[in-house]
Design a protein that fits this description.
lyase activity; lyase; 16 helices; alpha/beta; Rossmann fold; SAF_UxaA/GarD; GD_AH_second
């Protein structure tokens, strides 16, 4: 690809009235805006940081703010050309406690048939159908890319026993803050997640640890887990005689489980993989680089018959009409709209204003102004693939293709949900730098923010920011990231695995602790 002309800001769509800065500018600087046929030259009216937006024409109060060719908010005052466009002069139209009856997905998508126009996905950059990888067969037919003994805490009260076993080689420990004094629906959800975590193919055997008086039905969880055909053991602290005796017994159990699952990896077809998608500590570089390349990885996986799971329901707000055009049926489109509407309604019902929570303070510092802008960039991770189904949080994925999981955006709950869905690998895009991994699912980190790459190379696996400046083609960046992913699938350790930054785990609940 021939390099684009040098410019200071990128206009993504010809419809946009904003451009994203590729460098910081000062008042009175001339800003060269590229990305479309005509190059614009605008005088900066404000000091504006890298990754933030400037107006490329005069915008009047109450006019729409447009990026990616889509509305991302409304001007709260007049914004002259060259101004910094951000929270000081833009209002979101979504997730607002003061607009509880307006701008909901249900009103926007009363008839999904009107926007349901699925097309054939883009041809993937890499044909992976004939590829194989080294993995571990499980009794249910799934394949793991790691072969670990999972030690799963059934309740927060058992965490202290479980963490004392985390230094054992070949062991992955899962702890959380749930399992007792919760509503019946939440206990059922926790039980489902704890059961499906045991089904994750990266675990060859499981040891559950409980206190003994928790509300969650531990005996039923263990019974269900045993139906997966893996070795499953269960220890109860109150029966073992306390922490010390439970830990010592657990060590003997783990040693036996490790012997039972000892095996060399064998070759398996690419279509047996399940990839999870996540973005975190987001900034505007993601929608221009890392999420775009992640989308091309998604297209490679789905075209080869593998499964891909995307979640973070709040980050469909303002972009659900785009997702609706990419669903296999109008029923799937309606289901996406319903899940987004329900997530938004939970906040609105109590008069809560999502602004400040989504986007987060870090998102705002990184240039993301509204949840609509964040969502439009986040949806790029889905590439051009067709949504095949919507599943509830913690459900196990059974079909190939792109699946939406109804889930929150925060890392502990989202990564856990992807693991329960059966993902054996997670691709995590980050702008400002999110170091989190997960105990038994390798998490691959990529960023397009050069400052983050330089500062946090201990945590980032791949840098793709050169595509924003035209210094690398999308095809080359995709190939580099895919090659690294294949190394991790075949046993190389991700940065998160190497530094054991893997304690970001919890289970999503919607009700109170009682």
């Amino acid at each position: 690809m021939s390099p684009r002309p040098a410019f200071d800001a990128l206009q993504i769509s010809a419809l946009d009235n904003t451009a994203t800065l590729l460098k910081s500018v000062r008042i009175s600087d001339e800003v060269v805006v590229g990305g479309q046929t005509d190059v614009l030259r605008i005088k900066a009216l404000d000091d504006t940081p890298f990754g933030h937006k400037i107006s490329i024409r005069d915008i009047h109060s109450s006019d729409s703010i447009v990026k990616y060719g889509e509305v991302i908010g409304t001007a709260s005052r007049d914004i002259p050309a060259g101004s910094h466009v951000h929270v000081q002069n833009v209002e979101s139209n979504r997730g607002r406690g003061d607009m509880a009856e307006q701008n909901t997905p249900a009103s926007q998508l009363e008839s999904c048939e009107e926007v349901f126009t699925p097309k054939v996905p883009d041809r993937p950059i890499i044909n992976a159908r004939s590829l194989c990888y080294r993995g571990y067969s499980r009794p249910d037919g799934s394949v793991g890319i790691r072969n670990l003994v999972g030690i799963i805490s059934c309740v927060a009260c058992a965490n202290d026993v479980v963490v004392q076993l985390s230094d054992i080689e070949g062991v992955a420990c899962f702890t959380h803050q749930q399992g007792c004094s919760q509503t019946k629906p939440d206990l059922a959800l926790i039980a489902k997640v704890l059961t499906n975590l045991a089904k994750n193919p990266n675990l060859g055997a499981i040891l559950y640890v409980s206190l003994g008086c928790e509300s969650v039905p531990t005996e039923e969880i263990v019974r269900q887990a045993k139906t997966f055909g893996k070795p499953v053991e269960f220890l109860i602290i109150q029966k073992e005689g306390g922490l010390t005796q439970t830990v010592e017994h657990a060590k003997a159990v783990v040693a036996d489980l490790k012997q039972k699952i000892a095996a060399a990896p064998t070759q398996h077809p690419f279509n047996t993989l399940k990839l999870g998608l996540k973005c975190g500590s987001s900034d505007t570089t993601q929608g221009l680089s890392a999420n775009v390349i992640a989308g091309k990885i998604t297209d490679i996986f789905t075209a080869a018959g593998a499964s891909v799971v995307i979640g973070e329901t709040t980050e469909f707000m303002g972009a659900e009409h785009i997702a609706a055009r990419r669903c296999v049926t109008s029923e799937v489109a309606q289901e996406i709209a319903k899940r987004v509407s329900e997530m938004e309604a939970r906040a609105k019902a109590v008069g809560v204003d999502m602004r400040g929570g989504q986007p987060t303070r870090g998102n705002i510092d990184g240039g993301l102004t509204t949840i609509e802008e964040k969502s439009l960039g986040a949806l790029a991770k889905a590439g051009s693939s067709i949504f095949q189904r919507v599943i509830a949080y913690g459900d196990n994925v059974k079909q190939p293709g792109l699946v939406m999981m109804d889930s929150p955006g925060r890392e502990p709950e989202m990564l856990t949900g992807l693991a329960a869905a059966g993902c054996n690998l997670i691709l995590f895009t980050t702008g400002r730098g999110a170091p989190q991994g997960f105990p038994f699912v390798p998490v691959v980190k990529t960023t397009g923010n050069e400052n983050t790459w330089q500062c946090l190379q201990e945590h980032i696996d791949c840098y793709v920011g050169k595509i924003m400046r035209g210094e690398e083609s999308y095809a080359d960046a995709t190939q580099r990231l895919f090659d690294e992913i294949m190394l991790f699938i075949n046993g190389d350790l991700t940065k998160a695995e190497q530094c054991r930054y893997n304690n970001s785990m919890n289970i999503y609940v919607t009700g109170p602790t009682i």
